[in-house]
Amino acid sequence: MEAKKKVLIVEDEKNIVDILRFNLQRTGYETVEAYDGEDGLAKAIGENPDLILLDVMLPKMLGFDVCKTLRSQGNNVPVIILTAREEESDKVLGLEIGADDYITKPFSMRELIARVGANIRRTAMAAPAAATAAASAMRVADDLSINTDSHQVFRAGKAIDLTQREYELLTFLASHPNKVYSRIDLMEQVWNYGYVGDDARAVDVTVRRLREKIEADPASPIYILTRRGAGYYFSVAQA
Ligand code: CA
């Protein structure tokens, strides 16, 4: 058996931590807990978790700042933000600052466990999936290249820091050049579970973040293009 995956729970409500810990451990995960943002950040760095469940409203340091700090340090551990119900702005902000996913409180435990599993699996399977999709380790489109062995993306020879989700979205689209995928398609293919309705905006946010990182002019993208009313596609310039 491979080692247990470790989930860091950063949440100040003890009863929520208790029920999360109980259910995660029962499912086969190891857990680490932090009850405020500062401790959460310290454990995110020191404990090297496979995934972080991150509450937003935390003592000492907000969940958003914990996530932002990790990303600024180049730490791409999957982060699922726990948001209070109806706080739509929290979801969008969470994705903006580099979270991979969010789940709304009160959540169903089954749904949460499924999301944890999907996000960890996605990370673990990224390498073989990407390797299969690519004919070679290095994919080049104009001045953009993806090394699917090292999971690095380069633009004009310079390494670009992407979150795991951004990397996977780019790799997926680039593996199917000029094919248009709807947001729902991408939710299923890249996010690994079916989303409905407004949640598909996560695709838009991720596309926008990706464009800001890989496009010379994000307002006039040349790689990831929008087919109005249909979806997104990776454009391959004609030789
Ligand atoms: Ca809280």
What do you see in this structure?
The chain has 239 residues and is α/β, with parallel strands linked by helices. It folds into two domains: 6-126, Response regulator (Rossmann fold); 161-234, Arc Repressor Mutant, subunit A (Orthogonal Bundle). It contains eight helices and eleven strands. The strands form three sheets. A five-stranded parallel β-sheet has the order 2-1-3-4-5, with helices on both faces. Strands 6-7-8-9 form a four-stranded antiparallel β-sheet, with no helix packed on it. Strand 4, helix 4 (88-96) and strand 5 form a beta-alpha-beta unit. 34% of the residues are buried. Calcium ion binds next to loops.
Top-tier CATH class of the largest domain = Alpha Beta
- Point out poorly predicted stretches: 127-137
**Structural shape:** globular
Count of helix runs: 8
Q: Write the CATH fold name of the largest domain.
A: Rossmann fold
| Oligomerization state | single chain
SSE arrangement, N to C: EHEHEHEHEHEEEEHHHEE
- Largest sheet, described in full? 5 strands, parallel
Order of strands in the sheet with the most strands? 2-1-3-4-5
Radius of gyration: 18 Å
Q: Please state the structural category.
A: alpha/beta
Ligands in the structure?
Answer: calcium ion
Mean pLDDT: 84
β-sheet strand percentage: 15-25%
CATH architecture of the largest domain: 3-Layer(aba) Sandwich
Total count of domains: 2
Q: Let me know the number of strands.
A: 11
Helix fraction? Answer: 40-55%
Distance between the termini: 48 Å
User: Can you tell me the CATH superfamily of the largest domain?
Assistant: Response regulator
